[in-house]
Amino acid sequence: MKQGGNPNNLGETRIPRAFVLALLGLVVVGQVGCAPGAAPAGSTAPSAPAGGPPEDDGATKTLVIAQAIAFTAMGPFTTNNTSGGGVTLLGIHSTGLVSLDGQGREVPRIAAAIPSLSDGSVVLLPDGKMRTTWRLRPDVTWHDGTKFTADDVAFTQKVRSKIIPGNPADVSPFIEQIDVPDPLTAVMTWKTPYYPALFMDFRSFYPLPQHLLGKAFEEDNEEVFLRNPYFTTEYVNTGPFRLTDWGQGTETTYERYPNYFLGLPKVGKIIIKAILDPNVIAASVRAGAIDIVANKALSANVSVVLRDEWRSSNEGSVVSRQENWIYLQYQWDPQQARPLEVSRDARLRTGLYEGIDRAAIREFQFPGVPDTNADSFIPAADPRVSVVGQPFARHPYDPNRATAHLTEGGWTQGVDGKFLDRSGAPAQ
Fold it and tell me: d(Cα 354, Cα 421) in Å, to the nearest integer?
C-alpha cells in the first residue's frame, strides 16, 4: 500500500505497508503491541533529550485491519466461528491466562507462570481428578482500571458453564470447581486429567469481569444477560487496545490502553473493518485503505496474486503458515465407502493414496509458498516434526506402486488404464 492520508480524516499517520496475514492475530499484537523497554504500567516514560524533537511513541499512528466476518457481540461468542479471520484479531483487545508467542510457543499472559508438575502447581489427585494452581500477575487491569483478580477467573467459570455457549476449545465443561485462596491465586479442580488444561487462552477460557457482570449474572435470565451492553458498546477486557467505538460490529475502533501490563502499544489506534466480500478487501488493500488483512479473510489464490504483485512493487507482504487441513474418512460409513471393499482392505486405500500427487496439488494451490509439507499437517520447519514425524510419507506418490496395491486388493485395470472393482463395475 502507498503512503497516504487517513481514510477517516482524523489526522493520524497511517502505517506505510500492507500485510496479508495467514498468521494468528496475536502476531499483529506482537508487531504493534509492546515497545521494547516500555515503561511499566503506571510509570512515566523518560522524555526526549532537551533540544531534540519529541520522541514519536506511536500515538498518532492508526492501523486499519480487515476481517471477512461481522460480529454481533464481543466476548466468548466471537470464538465459536474461526472463518473470516475475526478470531485471529481478538488478541488486539482481549487476553487470556496464556497465549502464543511469535514462534507458536505457549507463554503466560495474565498468569504469572504456566502451572507445572515440577513446582507442584499441577497435581494428579488420588480420586482421579487433577488440580492446577494459577498464580496471576499483580499488574493486570481491566480497561476501566479495575484490577484483574482470581475472583474474575472463578466468575468466568460460573458464567461459561451455565450461560454462554461454548466452542470445541472451551474447557469449562471439564472444570469441576475453582477456588480462590487469595486475590492472585486461582485453583482449578478438573473432573479428570485433561490434556489442554494448561492452554487457557481466550478461546478456551475467555475472561469476564465480575465487577461489571456479577450483578446481571445473578439477577437476569439468560436472554437478558446476553443483551447486556457490556457485550457490545461497553466492552472492556485486558488486551493492549480498548474499545472506543462499537460501530455496530462492522467497523470497531480501539485506542491503545496506557496501562497495558506488557507495556505501551506502539500504535495509537486500530480500526477493524468487517468486509464480507474478499474482492472488496483486495481492492481496498491495493488502494491503500487497508493496512492488514486478517488470516482467512482472503482466499489462498488472491493472497498468492498479491504476493506476486508486491514482489516487484515492495508495497506489501504476504505472511503464510500451514493451518487448516482437509482430510477424507471414507472407510467409516458403509453407505459412503463405495465400493465397500475400500473400507475393508488396506491395500486398496494404500493404492489410492499412492496415486495422489500431493506435492503437485500443494504447489498448484499454493505456488511458491515455503515451509509446507505435503505428507503431514505439521509444517516442515516445525521442531515437532522430529517427534510427530510424517505419518503419510511412508506412502509416497508412485503410480506403479499404486497400481500394484490396487491389483493386489482385487481390482483389475482395463486397457484404457481405468480400474474395475471386485464386482467388475468401474471403480468410483
Answer: 17
Look up residue 293 and give its amino acid. Answer: V
Cell numbers describing residue 204:
478456551
DSSP string over 374-391: TT-SS-TT-TTHHHH--T
Residue 353 has pLDDT above 70, yes or no: yes
Q: pLDDT tens for residues 364-389?
A: 877 877 666 777 767 666 666 666 66
Contact 66, 284 (CB under 8 A): yes
pTM: 0.74
Question: Which CA distances in Å does 2 have to 229, 310, 312?
Answer: 38, 11, 14
- Beta strand segments in 217-362, E: 241-245, 251-256, 269-274, 292-293, 316-319
The average pLDDT across 204-217 equals 96
Q: With both helix axes pointing from N to C terminus, report the angle between 210-219 and 150-162 in degrees, rounded to the nearest 10.
A: 40
Residue 13's beta-bridge partner residues? 61
Dihedral sign (CA 6, 288, 265, 294): positive
What mean pLDDT is predicted for residues 346-374?
Answer: 84
Put residue 162 in one of left, alpha, beta given phi > 0 → left and psi -120 to 50 → alpha: alpha
- One DSSP character per residue, 121-179 reads SEEE-TTS-EEEEEEBPTT-B-TTSPBP-HHHHHHHHHHHHHTS---TT--GGGEEEEE
- pLDDT score of 146 more than 90: yes
Residue type at 125 in one-letter notation = L
